TrEMBL record:
Pathway: Cofactor biosynthesis; biotin biosynthesis; biotin from 7,8-diaminononanoate: step 2/2. SMART domains: BATS, Elp3. The lineage of its organism: Bacteria, Bacillati, Actinomycetota, Actinomycetes, Kitasatosporales. Belongs to the radical SAM superfamily. Biotin synthase family. It catalyses: (4R,5S)-dethiobiotin + (sulfur carrier)-SH + 2 reduced [2Fe-2S]-[ferredoxin] + 2 S-adenosyl-L-methionine = (sulfur carrier)-H + biotin + 2 5'-deoxyadenosine + 2 L-methionine + 2 oxidized [2Fe-2S]-[ferredoxin]. [2Fe-2S] cluster binds at residues 109, 143, 203, 273. This is Biotin synthase. [4Fe-4S] cluster binds at residues 65, 69, 72. InterPro entries: Aldolase_TIM, BATS_dom, Biotin_synth/BioAB, Biotin_synthase, Elp3/MiaA/NifB-like_rSAM, rSAM, rSAM_sf. Residues 47-278 form the Radical SAM core domain. Its cofactor is [4Fe-4S] cluster; [2Fe-2S] cluster.
Length: 374
């Protein structure tokens, strides 16, 4: 296919595709899907070989956010029955992070709900960052995700030892008011710029499946490229009950792969991460996504359960890839999904057969007395 040949050539030179080419990737047919994956895989391997970087989330403060992001289970007015708790102490946060590191994670992502951190919040997180750095040295990267940054806060996190800062754009500027009214696209973009200016590696991505158009997906991908982000988490909507987007199941595994491929062709040498919702929407095609993306989250997400850590490691090995930064602990594979698969039974509420439902709320790990999933 001429389109894919052109995109591979541009990807190897880091020459941006045209907007029309990116839209054409999303418009390809299911008959062409394996060709799309193979072409995106050539670009992925050129920049990252067969390595897969594992990331591990630690939710430092869960729920009760004052923002009204319609996709989020922690939003203002959310009726989702998630875990809610205030700030974890540094020793509890480090213990949760250590479980992910033991499972093979090279980056720990420290996340807290809220519009943005106060200076006291930054101090708390800096204590945790310093504790992680003291325990693991340079072997583990530390990323913070605390909301909108104020002036000087990125510099403080960097001085404490943080490597990166995550703040997702989520959707296009044109569509942003459809998903949030308490802040805007410009606020998010400015935080990404502040992170970079403060010496932190900028991490920012998107959410697919919220009712956006192909144009919105392409626009946000080019916005991320324009901001020069180093890593791009691609999330797929987790439609929690109790949120405005509950019951929205518009993605197919094939569509999710095309979204990932489009992002790879636009952000060729960025770390593309398969993020939240992969188990729900990619389902049995998750291994194919590894040919496009070079990174994923290990274990659970902020408020929902993920695939078991051992199943993730087995999937990576079975697909012929290797974990970046070392060899994870050996052990028998665990093929349990951990998020309650339906086994292909039809859903009376309209969810696609084969998808996982209902969403399994996280009840283990950080903020609980149960061991984490890693």
């Amino acid at each position: 296919m001429d389109l894919l040949s052109a995109l591979v050539d541009k990807g190897l030179r880091r020459e941006p595709p045209t907007r029309a080419e990116a839209l054409a990737v999303l418009a390809t047919s299911d008959d062409d899907l394996l060709e799309v994956v193979a072409a995106a895989g050539r670009v992925r391997r050129a920049w990252f070989g067969r390595r897969v970087k594992l990331n591990y989330l630690v939710n430092l403060k869960s729920g009760l956010c004052p923002e009204d992001c319609s996709y989020c289970s922690q939003r203002l007015g959310s009726k989702a029955e998630i875990l809610t708790y205030t700030w974890l102490k540094p020793d509890a946060a480090v213990a949760a992070a250590n479980a992910g590191v033991a499972g093979g994670a090279r980056r720990v992502c420290l996340v807290a709900s809220g519009r943005g951190p106060t200076d006291r919040d930054v101090e708390r997180v800096c204590e945790t960052v310093s504790a992680l750095r003291a325990e693991h040295g340079a072997a583990v990267e530390v990323c913070a995700c605390l909301g909108l940054l104020s002036e000087g806060q990125a510099e403080r996190l960097r001085a404490a030892g943080a490597d990166a800062y995550n703040h997702n754009l989520n959707t296009s500027q044109a569509a942003y008011a459809d998903i949030c009214t308490t802040h805007d696209f410009a606020d998010r973009a400015e935080t990404v710029r502040r992170a970079r200016a403060g010496g932190l590696s900028p991490c920012s991505g998107l959410i697919a499946g919220m009712g956006e158009s192909d144009e919105d997906l392409v626009d946000v991908a080019f916005a991320l490229r324009g901001l020069g982000v180093d890593s791009v988490p691609v999330n797929f909507l987790i439609p929690f009950d109790g949120t405005p987007l509950a019951g929205r199941w518009e993605l197919t595994p094939q569509r999710a792969l095309r979204v990932l491929a489009m992002v790879r062709f636009v952000c060729q040498d960025a770390e593309v991460r398969i993020a939240g919702g992969r188990e729900l929407h990619l389902r049995t095609l998750q291994p194919l996504a590894l040919h496009i993306a070079n990174s994923l989250f290990l274990g659970d997400y902020l408020t929902s359960e993920g695939q078991s850590g051992r199943a993730d490691l087995a999937m990576i090995a079975d697909a012929g890839f290797e974990v970046e930064g070392g060899t994870p602990p050996a052990g028998p594979p665990d093929t349990g999904a951990g998020h309650g698969e339906r086994g292909g039974q039809p859903d009376p509420d309209g969810q696609p057969a084969g998808a996982a439902a209902p969403v399994a709320v996280r009840r283990r790990g950080a903020g609980t007395t149960l061991p984490p999933n890693a």
